[in-house]
Amino acid sequence: MKPALNVSGxxxxxxxxxxxxxxxKLTYLLDQNGTVxxxxxxxxxxxxxxKAILSLPQEQLNWKRIRIFMVDERNVxxxxxxxxQGEYLRLFPNELRDVFVPMQIFKDPCLTAxxxxxxxxxxxxxxxxxxxxxxxxxxxxxxxxGHTASIFxxxxxxxxxxxxxxxxxxxxxPKPPPSRITLTLQTLQHAKNVAFIICGKQKAEIxxxxxxxxxxYPAAQARPFNDKxxxxxxxxxxxxxxxRDSSDSDSPPPFDG
Length: 257
Ligand code: 6PG
Hints:
Elements: E1 4-8, H1 11-30, E2 36-40, H2 45-54, E3 66-70, E4 72-74, H3 84-91, H4 109-124, E5 137-140, E6 167-170, E7 180-183, H5 185-189, E8 194-198, H6 204-211, H7 218-221, E9 229-234, H8 235-238
The structure holds 6-phosphogluconic acid.
């Protein structure tokens, strides 16, 4: 199946497209039982994701049943400028603080990862499939080297340091800071929905790689097994989409949540 494609002319349009996607998915998911689990990444995402979700009619959202998780995090304190979660918390109103599942940071990143997995298991318990985490939606970014989450080219096989291997660490990240916690590729691949937000000409080749399943890029390996992949691109990044006219321009139906 080809990825569902959303191409925007500017950031305002990107936020509108994200909002529409969130509205469609959340309407469906909140109608089911249990917690809706959304994983988010760093980079420019905190700004656009926050604007999109906070612009939805708030009475439509049952925040008590929505939980937001970090796809990856730098092993730094929450009040550090480098903390992804810290950035989201600064962008969200205080009364929605509990929507974010905290990642307790320890000096040893392995401990951070182990605690984080235990925390995830509390929320994703009913969604586990053969001990594999199944997030409802994961929002991923992409680096110019093709990394996604904190999974970098040549470093895809992260050491198994947690019981279920949902989470791992990298201590020599090519992009600073070096010490990071990340969901594993296995976890990304089992998500019910994966949405990439990718902007810029220098990422057009990675977009091609994702569409062509070119395994040399971690981002292409993060394609979910159910193929429910949505791309939010600007015009520059979209030049990498092969055979663009025949791509789906809308999200596929939410058969799997
Ligand atoms: C990090 C960032 C990083 C980012 C990508 C894409 O922890 O260093 O999260 O991995 O997600 O570089 O960033 P943009 O979407 O802003 O290009």
